[in-house]
Write a structure and sequence with these properties.
57% helix, binds zinc ion
């Protein structure tokens, strides 16, 4: 659970000061490149100016209002972004849940949609007309109604016109925060009605600190991500996520190879880990076409990679064991791999799986002790392959 939105602190501080001194404006446009923290800053301002216990909640959410804000469920905070008109309510619910889990989450449709105006009688949840309805009501729980509109350059004339009067003269206590990475594409009628706040890309050290803060990364690793992301916090966060996904995919492949008796493939993997390289198709998957240089560098940190791969294999074997032991009561922790795991669980014995887990733990310890990486992994894969054969022999006997 999030404790706060990692907004840009100087901007957040400035807004809180303005609010305290009664000088807060009502319509702002945050302008700056992708990943410069506009959205997290807006969300953090919305949370803190509605907070019920600012002393307790300055760094970590403690009050109910803050917890609702972080969960994208606050009745006085509305966030919208460009969306296709066909979006169902359930999909909006999923989107808000995904944002609550990872505020860097950006739905894939945002890049190709407009900010919708919405039907006059029944505006959908991600529309300008829903924002207007929302702002018209008095604050329900907090002090301010805050509307956050992402990608304001994707407001076309129709939606913008519906919005202009409210932007110019918002209801008392309302705060409207528009966000845009393309100032030149924001309609002049909108620009002229907002105070502008400029966002710069994150300085490298600040971004590294943010990554340590958010994801508990070791400082050296955070510094590498920060360097590769070029000041873009969203990209840095994504490269970290795609990296663990790629390693998980590699671990899944190895577990399946070993089960199928393809020891040779696993030995090639040991060799690659030793040399600090990775399979090209995984690099492509991890990079997602966005962060290839950063991910490549990250994956080349040999020992870290091998340890993370061991952790992912450990997770897989634990899941197979869990599935074998609990049968129908099993709740998969790796839903994407559930079919493979259930399949393997049907062919292995709990004793064999426990031996697998021991072997992976042993290899992990040896990597920590700086033993020869390639050799440790080769021995591990040989042992895992032997365990499979022992189980098969036991099944035949
Ligand atoms: Zn609070």
């Amino acid at each position: 659970m999030l404790q706060r939105f990692a907004g840009r602190e100087p901007v957040v501080g400035r807004f809180l000061d303005l609010e305290r001194s009664g000088k807060l404006g009502q319509s702002y446009l945050f302008v700056g490149p992708d990943g410069s923290g506009k959205e997290l800053t807006a969300l953090e301002i919305a949370r803190l100016i509605n907070c019920a216990d600012p002393e307790a909640c300055r760094r970590e959410a403690a009050c109910e209002s803050c917890r609702k804000a972080l969960g994208f469920q606050h009745p006085d905070i509305q966030w919208i972004c460009p969306a296709p008109a066909s979006l169902a309510d359930a999909e909006v619910g999923e989107l808000l849940a995904a944002k609550a889990e990872d505020p860097f989450h950006r739905p894939s449709f945002a890049g190709s949609s407009e900010v919708l105006i919405g039907d006059p009688d029944r505006p959908g949840p991600l529309t300008i007309r829903s924002v207007l309805q929302f702002l018209r009501l008095k604050p329900f729980q907090g002090r301010h109604k805050v509307a956050i509109v992402g990608d304001a350059h994707r407001l076309r004339a129709g939606a913008a016109n519906a919005f202009l009067k409210t932007l110019e003269e918002p209801p008392p206590g309302a705060l409207i925060l528009l966000l845009s990475s393309l100032r030149g594409a924001v309609l002049p009628t909108i620009l002229s009605r907002c105070q502008r706040v400029a966002f710069e890309p994150y300085p490298r050290e600040e971004l590294a600190r943010l990554l340590v803060d958010l994801y508990d990364l070791p400082p050296a690793q955070a510094a590498d991500h920060a360097l590769a992301a070029d000041g873009d916090a969203r990209r840095a966060a994504r490269s970290r996520l795609t990296l663990s996904r790629a390693l998980r995919a590699w671990a899944r492949g190895l577990v399946a190879d070993l089960d199928a008796g393809r020891l040779g493939t696993a030995q090639i993997a040991a060799e690659m880990l030793h040399k600090g390289s990775v399979p090209a198709e995984l690099l492509a998957e991890a990079a997602d076409g966005v962060t290839r240089p950063g991910v490549a560098k990250e994956l080349s940190e040999r020992r870290d990679r091998a340890i993370q791969l061991c952790e992912q294999m450990h997770l897989h074997y634990s899941e197979i064991l869990g599935c074998a032991a609990r049968g129908d009561g099993w709740e998969p922790r790796l839903p994407r791999d559930a079919a493979l795991i259930a399949d393997l669980a049907g062919r292995r014995t709990p004793a064999g799986l426990l031996r697998d887990i021991d072997a992976v733990e042993q290899a992990r310890r040896e990597i920590d002790q700086s033993l020869n990486l390639g050799l440790v992994m080769a021995v591990l894969f040989q042992e895992l392959s032997d365990h499979v054969r022992l189980d098969r022999a036991a099944a035949r006997a």
